[in-house]
Design a protein that fits this description.
With 263 residues, this protein is an all-alpha fold. The protein contains 12 helices and no strands. α9 packs antiparallel against α10.
Length: 263
């Protein structure tokens, strides 16, 4: 029995030696060889090689998917997700690596029509981001949750989607155009029109301040004013909607007279 165990140990050590030799060789390794080497070394030095294995598996999965289809891609991305889960909680890049692996995994699940499983992976990704935020490893409370927000919106669960998006809103420096537009759209879809107007108004006010200092294009302000005027009309606030349209016309007059102060 001991002899058999020694043989197994010798085989493992031989595999480790081959893997290290492959990585130290002068030639450039392909992704299949990298994956093979990192699989072996991640067992003996997980802290050093699990992150490398995750990166290699994600990249290899995309490469294989292009050539051999999503089923084989799914297997590699599932393995990447499993490897990412095993990375130590104190690793500085754990949240990033886990997000990237889970993102690749859920994308392939959705491609194969396995929606319930894909949504579960998105939920895992969101929860991992929340934990990473609590540990001070990421700056956004809903890190990795943007994909779940999209999935919820696709299923008509707009209230849940906007609540998820709102987690990050307070942590963002300044006003993010795309974040504001995304939250506004979900609020409107959820029937929360007044909240939608309030969020979009924050964007309009920020853009107006930037145009006064010539730090953004006047065309941005025109688009936002016209869009908000439609939102205000839908909310029954027709007087304010008219004021937005008049301001948009005044900005267009300024553009016609002097052109865009910024590209």
């Amino acid at each position: 029995m001991n002899h058999s165990g020694n043989i197994s140990q010798n085989i493992d050590q031989d595999a480790v030696l081959r893997a290290r030799t492959m990585l130290l060789g002068s030639g450039r390794l392909g992704l299949p060889q990298e994956v093979e080497a990192y699989r072996v070394l991640a067992k003996v030095s997980p802290a050093a090689y699990l992150p490398k294995l995750v990166r290699a598996l994600v990249s290899y999965g995309y490469e294989v998917g292009r050539r051999r289809g999503p089923e084989r891609e799914l297997a590699l991305h599932a393995e990447a997700a499993g490897a990412a889960r095993r990375i130590g909680a104190d690793h500085p890049r754990r949240a990033e690596l886990l997000r990237d692996a889970l993102s690749a995994y859920e994308r392939t699940l959705f491609e194969l029509g396995r929606r319930a499983e894909g949504r579960a992976v998105c939920e895992e990704m969101t929860e991992a981001g929340r934990i990473a935020f609590e540990r001070g490893q990421v700056v956004y409370p809903a890190y990795g949750g943007d994909r779940l927000a999209v999935v919820l919106a696709e299923e008509g669960r707009h209230g849940e989607a906007v609540d998820l998006l709102a987690r990050d809103a307070g942590a963002e420096p300044g006003v993010s155009f795309w974040s504001a537009v995304e939250r506004t759209a979900e609020l409107e879809a959820a029937g929360r029109r007044e909240e939608a107007v309030a969020v979009f108004t924050g964007l309009v006010d920020d853009t107006r301040r930037k145009t006064e200092s010539d730090s953004t294009a006047l065309a941005h302000l025109v688009w936002e004013l016209v869009h908000r005027s439609r939102m205000l009309d839908a909310a029954g606030r027709h007087g304010e909607a008219g004021a937005d349209r008049r301001e948009a016309l005044a900005v267009l007059d300024r553009l016609a007279e002097s052109g865009e102060p910024r590209s």
